[in-house]
Amino acid sequence: MRRSLGNPFADGHLPPFSPLQAADIMDDQIKNPASPFKTCPICGKPQSEATRPFCSSRCRDVDLNRWLKGSYVIPGRDDEVDDVE
């Protein structure tokens, strides 16, 4: 017998959210982050709201420079063969 794919909330497992409830939940997550004491990934100082996730524009620029130079490259394995057609 084939199961009906009607309302997924009808079985009571997931309560339906109204758009206003979803907006309230997202606002709470923005106002009260899960871990408020995050540090800058470059220097370890506390993050600034204006330059998050970094502490300053200097650390943001250092990170951008590392990306542009290729410092964040994940090395591949030597046994990989390129597909040439």
What does this structure look like?
The protein has 85 residues and is an all-alpha fold. The protein has a domain at 44-70. Helix content is 31%, strand content 0%. It has 2 helices and no strands. It is flat and about 50 Å long. The N and C termini lie far apart (48 Å). The mean pLDDT is 76.
Query: How many strand units?
Result: 0
Tell me what portion of residues adopts beta-strand conformation: under 5%
**Given the C-alpha coordinates, what overall shape results?**
flat
**Overall residue-averaged pLDDT value:** 76
The helix content, as a percent range, equals 25-40%
Q: What is the CA–CA distance across the termini?
A: 48 Å
Unreliable stretches (pLDDT < 50, length at least 5) are none
Number of helices: 2
- Helices and strands, in order, run as HH
Q: In this structure, how is the largest beta sheet organized?
A: none
Radius of gyration: 23 Å
Task: Name the descriptors.
single chain; 85 residues; mainly alpha; flat
Briefly, what is this?
The chain has 85 residues and is mainly α. It has a domain at 44-70.
Task: Set out the fold topology.
Elements: H1 19-31, H2 57-69
